[in-house]
Design goal:
The structure is a homodimer. Chain A is of the alpha/beta class and about 525 residues long. Among the domains of chain A are: about 100-295, Glucose-6-phosphate isomerase like protein, domain 1 (Rossmann fold), CATH 3.40.50.10490; about 495-525, no CATH class. Chain A is built from 18 helices and 15 strands. In chain A, the strands form four sheets. In chain A, strands 1-2-15-12-10-11 form a six-stranded mixed sheet, sandwiched between helices. In chain A, helix 4 crosses helix 12 (about 315-330), helix 11 packs parallel to helix 16 (about 465-490) and helix 12 (about 315-330) crosses helix 16. The longest helix of chain A has 22 residues, at about 465-490. Chains A and B meet through helix 3, helix 7, helix 8, helix 9 and helix 13 of A and helix 3, helix 7, helix 8, helix 9 and helix 13 of B.
């Protein structure tokens, strides 16, 4: 039986606080630095590796982190989770997103159903549907092939699938696997839907309406917007729309949709890319095989996450180091910096995944915790960020831990050789250079040109952004966030913090307001 | 004569620290809240207003902030700047981006040239060029009209112009002002250029190469990439490319370009959208009149920034409140949250503007400051953010000050009425609701459903995102960042923090490395 304790109740945490802090600048200089790069690396799935040489850790800190992992029973808690315990205590739900891509433990039976079988059946149903669309068996009413798929969803129904689509779009083009182009409508701002609809041929577009509850206001609003547009064009909306929802939602058995695919309450929105929330659109865009390869990469990473030794478990190790940085070193923010244009929206997905999961002040039992929890997460792709906010990262007054990603190969197979090196080589040279600049800094007699260094970073290195490595990346961060939730003793799987705004917005729309809320509403012309 | 002092040397700062902290939750409740919304508002240019009712200020704090502004001589320092003093002390340069859009003070003569006339001449040259392209006087070699304009630039040559283009694209479509579609290539990752080039008809595309120095590695690399592609397509690159650069750069008089337009060393990259860095592409995309309207909005805002009373100067007031939050209240991060899909990349521009300007640890004289400076800036458009990271903003352990923007009208003129309200009304209702949810929170017997409130925010409210209001918004933040730089006694106009990475990257590409840098390079396959 596991026990759920606060981080600051553990002996290991107190011990950690007392350990001498590591100077990244000292450790990363000279031959010792090279040895750290070799030694402080853990294999991940799909040929990736997690390298933490430039983090503020040494063997003593790592040993204490391993003790913390043991004392906090991280592995046992993960085991409980994947064996079907009610880990989401607030909403009294299981947490089963990993089960969409593999089965780590015993059969999970809930509501009388084998859940692995249920998720697999839904994946296959979406795959079959996609195959029929690709074969021309499902067409528009004029018998023409659908060329575009548009996801209508917000939050987890948007950010993850969108980041994944963008990450694989050029890879798919290059490998002749782009079956349909994908677009996304998320914002309730009508300009979002208007802009997407103007850019596509709606008569050849298939819309995927994604809402677990079937009640998400933004999504239903955008659905109506799209249906109006289809009707205006003389098209039957029911022949252009599928639903991804829960079996109990009002959308589940509606004749308004060509088909419906299901997730359930055990898949949180921000963890839903592996379910048919990601599966429907990605199978339509790239073909079901590509989506399966993505799931396989994620499943391989999940297996690593089940290992008890953090030095063999990149997800747990990343989590432990992050908590060390947040709660012992006191850094409030983390930057995510993929050196890959394909990952341009991956930071936005991680922002939701991390901040919505662990941006909480009370523990699983509703008691206020006495330590800080989830950090602010932000980021943009390198090298763009280098010409933007890196100034602050290098010379600002706060230290921001950095999470780099780098890949040896690009996707599109086009490159240019300039000044003796390719663009891809320049990209990789830059990420290597940045790690060292952040770590070691550089003294200069002009203080304005001095770099203090000691800015810790890790890097995930891979061969290429492809379905397998992307799946592994996604799972890595999901698992990292889960382990951090365990360490902070939070329920990482609810999001009560989004409710109050919804209630007040309804009051505004019902003109049932007074005081400042009415004053703001007046100013905004509502 | 102004004197440049550190923030913590002023009497007003010490006084501020001693003033009783304001409870936003208390102040914003009931009738007092409504009065604050009315009272704590300053007009901005182009019909915008800056409302700071939900900030942690009261009349006492505001009076002390006004004293600080006076003691720090903010107005006098701005006066020095726009009259042509060497404000960028590190690089010994004037700071003249405001002069691109208007003249607040006396004539600025530098290098024997009236700088206002110089910038105006460049704007007009780019405008004439754009008009000739639109009239079909400048075409491709086959005599066909150019339909697409592609900016090749990075950092300030990318983020600002891109954010502005995206902000006005749908407005321009709706108003029949979209003359050419625009695209952007920035990242040295070859997949960025490959993806853009695959999505356009290069034979009808005009490329704008933007590099002040003419030596930016990413930009030159992407230029070669594009030129190769043009040559492969049997096109003459020199007939498809214009340059925006400084008169002293190697690109200035090259026959490789159809035309060249100039900025100079007195326009920093992140402040260059008002120069022909923004002017060339925006005039080509929307027509020169739209770009002029944008400049006029910015110029109007600059005039407000010259006012001495912070209560009449929204840019200075925003700056003062931000410094109060950073240095007295101790908040390390600020979120930028535009409730407008059009402003989807505006936060990325502000991230550069703010973090690259004020992410510094030494003052203008090279002395280390004893206080924190520029915060981390991040953000996404609402309502998307509500379904993502807002959980942490509401219930996380850290308080993150918020900068909202909201507009009464959308751009595309399409909307849908659902459940008794339009999408636009829902959008506006949400931002009003969020402000109040953050300010006042809500007690609940379930601690997991409790909101502590007291999370300060401001909002800029306007009628619509259009050229004038967008210009005003841009200038507002430029001026805010400038005033904050004055308050922190920083040089906000250099970026020495980006240099070390460049040097190390060159060493990697020359295979002139050892230690950890070599080890990383090996792992990345360079």
């Amino acid at each position: 039986m596991v026990s759920w304790n606060n981080l600051d109740q553990t002996a290991a945490f107190k011990k950690l606080a007392g350990i001498k802090k590591v100077s990244v600048a000292e450790k990363m200089a000279g031959e010792e630095g090279a040895q750290r790069v070799e030694k402080y690396s853990v294999p991940m799935a799909a040929g990736l590796s997690f390298n933490y040489a430039a983090k503020a850790v040494d063997d003593e800190v790592l040993a204490a982190l391993a003790e913390l992992a043991k004392e906090m029973q991280l592995t046992e808690k993960f085991e409980e989770l994947y064996n079907g315990a009610v880990i989401n205590t607030g909403e009294k739900r299981l947490v089963l997103h990993q089960l969409c891509r593999g089965q780590l433990g015993k059969d999970v039976i809930a509501d009388g159903v084998n859940k692995r079988e249920f998720y697999e059946a839904q994946r296959k149903a979406a795959a079959d549907f996609a195959n029929r669309v690709h074969k021309g068996e499902i067409t528009n009413e004029a018998g023409e092939a659908f060329t575009t798929v548009v996801q209508i969803g917000i939050g987890g129904s948007d950010l993850g699938p969108r980041a994944i689509y963008l990450a694989l779009e050029n890879w798919a083009k290059q490998n002749d696997m782009l079956k349909m182009q994908a677009r996304f409508i998320s914002n309730v701002d009508p300009d979002d839907a208007a802009s997407v609809l103007k850019s596509i041929d709606v008569s050849k577009s298939l819309f995927v309406l994604v809402s677990k509850s079937g009640t998400t206001l933004e999504t239903l609003t955008n659905e109506t917007f799209v249906k109006n547009k289809l009707a205006e064009a003389g098209l039957n909306p029911a022949k252009h729309m599928i639903a991804v929802t829960s079996e109990t939602s009002p959308l589940a058995s509606s004749s308004d949709y060509l088909a419906a695919f299901f997730m359930d309450d055990y898949i949180g929105g921000r963890y839903s890319s592996s379910s048919c929330v990601g599966g429907a659109i990605l199978s339509l865009a790239f073909g079901p095989e590509v989506f399966e390869r993505f799931l396989n990469g994620a499943a391989e990473e999940d297996k690593l996450a089940a290992k008890a030794d953090p030095l063999e478990n990149p997800d747990m190790l990343d989590a432990l180091i992050g908590v060390y940085e947040r709660n012992i070193l006191g850094y409030p923010t983390t930057a995510v910096l993929p050196y890959s244009q394909a990952l341009s929206r991956f930071p936005a997905h991680l922002q939701q995944l991390d901040m919505e999961s662990n941006g909480k002040s009370v523990n699983r039992f509703g008691d206020k915790v006495d330590y800080v929890t989830g950090p602010v997460i932000f980021g943009e792709p390198g090298t763009n960020g280098q010409h933007s906010f890196y100034q602050l990262l290098h010379q600002g007054t706060d230290i921001i831990p950095l999470q780099f990603m780098g890949f040896r190969e690009n996707q599109a197979g086009m490159d240019a050789d300039i000044q003796g090196s390719t663009s891809q080589q320049k990209l990789c040279a830059n990420v290597a250079a940045q790690i060292m600049a952040f770590a070691c800094g550089k003294a200069d007699e002009n203080p304005n040109k001095s770099f203090a260094g000691n800015r810790p970073s890790s890097i995930i290195i891979g061969q290429q952004v492809n379905p397998e490595s992307l799946g592994a990346l996604l799972a890595h961060f999901e698992n990292k966030v889960m382990f951090q939730g365990f360490l902070w003793n939070l329920n990482s799987f609810d999001q009560e913090g989004v409710q109050l705004g919804k209630i007040l917005a309804k009051r505004v729309l019902a003109h049932n307001t007074d005081g400042a809320l009415k004053a703001y509403s007046d100013l905004l012309g509502i």
